[in-house]
Write a structure and sequence with these properties.
The protein is mainly alpha-helical. It is 61% helix and 11% strand. The chain has a domain of 74 residues: Helix Hairpins (Orthogonal Bundle), CATH 1.10.287.370. α1 runs antiparallel to α2. It is elongated and about 90 Å long. Keywords: Chaperone, Coiled coil. It comes from Linum tenue.
Length: 109
């Protein structure tokens, strides 16, 4: 979301006059600058965020591979959670004794 917000800001201020003043929030303080100073800073921030996201994605893929290798090495199979298992057992029991036979409708004896 932050990358898209930075992109929106960059696209909005890029075509404007570099001498035009703008405001930027830095550490909770609104600072008056001009576009010439703000645009490179916003672009650097966007690039930094993209780098962090790329590193986190690489680390995630590495951990997924490690988990898969660990599961294969020790023959680990993931089972459903206890609540899912209880729900399935309950539905199996109910399914076997599900129907109740009743006489024809409207017959009063």
């Amino acid at each position: 979301m932050e990358v898209s917000e930075h992109s929106l800001v960059i696209n909005a201020i890029q075509p404007l006059d570099p001498a035009r003043r703008c405001y930027r929030m830095i550490g909770g303080v609104l600072v008056e600058r001009n576009i010439k100073e703000v645009l490179p800073a916003v672009q650097r921030n966007k690039e930094g965020i993209e780098e962090v996201i790329a590193r986190l994605n690489e680390a995630l893929e590495k951990k997924k591979k490690e988990i898969a290798d660990f599961e294969a090495k020790y023959k680990i199979r993931i089972r459903k959670g206890d609540s899912d298992m209880k729900d399935e057992e309950g539905s199996k029991k109910d399914g076997g004794s599900q129907g109740v036979l009743v006489g024809p409708a409207g017959s009063a004896e």
